[in-house]
Amino acid sequence: MDGVEQVEVVVAHRERATLRVGDVFLKIDADQTRADVEVEAMAAAPVPTPEVLWRRPPVLALAALRGTALGRLGEPSPASPAAWAAAGAAARTLHDAPLPPWPRRSPDEVAADLDAECAWLVTNGVLPAQVVTRNRRVAEAALRPWTPVFAHGDLQVTHVFVDGDEVTGVLDWSEAGRGDALFDLATLTLGHPERLGDVVAGYGADVDLDVIRAWWSLRSLRAIRWLTEHGFDPRPEIAVLEGCDDTWS
Fold first, then answer.
1. How confident is the model at residue 12 (pLDDT cuts 50, 70, 90)?
2. Residue 247 above 70 pLDDT?
3. Which residues constitute the domain of residue 94?
C-alpha cells in the first residue's frame, strides 16, 4: 500500500508504549497521572519540548523533534562537545525555573529502595557482592539533603535531541518534579563520563563531581531489576557498575 506510513514501535513494556507514525509519536500510558505530569511539565519547562498535537487518554500524540538524540547508553556519542555543553546549559535553564508542584522521593526513601535493590542483585547472583558493595559505598554521597529544583527526572541522552550544536527539544517528562539537580546531570552523563566536563561547562555552575559519580552508581543499582523485568538489556548499567572505582568517591 503505497503512501501508507509504517508504524514503528519505539519502546513497549507493561506500563507504557511509544509508537511512531511518520512525524507523530503516540504515547500510550496505563497511568494517566504520569501523562498529566508530562503534559503540564512540557508546558511549564523553559526549554524546547515536543508539540502536543492532541490527547485522548490513554493516548498522547506528540510532534517529532528536529535533529537526533544526543547519544545512546552503551554506545559512543556522535554529538560534538558543544552539543553536550548546550545540553548542560538547557539543564541549568530548567533547574533555575520555578519549582513544579510534584514532589519527588526523599533521600531516606531513595536509600531504602537502594538497599532493597542491592540485596536483590546479590541474592539473585546478578553481580558479585563486592561490586554491589563498592557501588553502594560510592552511592552514599548522593544520599544527602539537596535543595530541590525543577528536575526532569529521567534526563537520559536519548531524551535530549540536538541539531548540530543546538538543543532542539527534550522528551519524556513523566518523571518531572522537585528533585536533585545533580541527579539530572548524572542521568545525562551516565555511561558517558568523558562528556561530563562538557556538560558541566555548559551548566555554568560549580557542581560536586563526587555526587554525580555517586548518582551513576545509585541509578544503575536501582535500574537493573526494572530493566530485566520489563524486557530491556541491563548490560550498559552493569558496565557502569563494573567500571566503578573507589577513586570516584
1. confident
2. no
3. 66-248
Residue type present at position 164: G
Give yes or no for a contact between 71 and 157, defined as CB atoms under 8 angstroms apart: yes
Report the CATH number that the domain containing residue 89 is assigned in CATH.
3.90.1200.10
Mean pLDDT confidence for 205-213? 95
| Residue 137 included in any domain | yes
| Total number of domains in the chain | 1
